[in-house]
Design brief:
single chain, Tetracycline Repressor, domain 2, repressor, BetI_C, HTH_TetR
Length: about 210
């Protein structure tokens, strides 16, 4: 068996992007971070790529270099904002689907502009001619639903969630409730968003039954 080549101590460092490519990645990240601040404050409605560039503080040419369209920029801004939120406040494996959505609702109250951005992207995804938004919404719903299904199944196995309900149906219902309540809250802040999610959590709790499953 041939001997494996020795690995240099700085192999990891040598594999990291360097030079113009690394600078380009860093510049793209700076633009995303600045755009998140702008959109979190006032949303994205009615803004062209040129006006976004002006508010972020970069040239229109620079923004167009990293993002092919306004829609592709909005998608990447939301994805990065969500990634940063999850990184800052990760969810444990035992967190229930409703716990996750409740925590998300609490965070979103502080960044209504990003909630509006999300709603804009989902609405665009339902129309023809918006491939970036359609891909974003389709992939995101599928990923969130798959994660919630696993959480429901773990909750059922541990006795924390009733076992007479279908895990995928529960996951889809939780997403629908969360997004629907979020839309209502954007229109009327008096909507009992957290309380409604708490009610859904209680409805999913196991309850004493006679004779096994219903």
């Amino acid at each position: 068996m041939p001997e494996e080549p020795a690995v240099a101590a700085d192999d990891d460092a040598s594999s990291r992007p360097r030079g113009p490519y690394a600078k380009g990645l860093a510049r793209r990240q700076q633009i995303l971070d600045r755009a998140i601040e702008v959109f979190a404050r006032r949303g994205s409605a009615g803004t062209s790529l040129r006006s976004i560039a002006q508010e972020i503080g970069v040239s229109h040419a620079a923004l167009s270099h990293y993002f092919s369209s306004r829609e592709s920029l909005l998608v990447e801004v939301y994805r990065e904002a969500e990634r940063q939120q999850v990184e800052a406040e990760p969810h444990g494996l035992d967190a229930s689907p409703v716990d996750i959505m409740t925590a998300s609702a609490r965070r979103n109250h502080a960044v209504p502009g990003l909630v509006q951005l999300y709603s804009t992207l989902v609405a665009a995804a339902l129309e023809a001619g918006h491939p970036d938004a359609t891909a974003f919404a389709t992939e995101r719903f599928a990923a969130v639903r798959a994660d919630l299904v696993q959480r429901v199944e773990r909750g059922q196995a541990s006795g924390r969630i009733r076992d007479d309900v279908d895990a995928e149906s529960v996951a889809s219902l939780v997403i629908a409730a969360s997004d629907g309540l979020q839309t209502q809250w954007m229109l009327d802040e008096s909507v009992p968003q957290s309380e409604s999610l708490d009610l859904l959590a209680r409805l999913l709790e196991p309850h004493p039954r006679r004779g096994g499953k219903a």
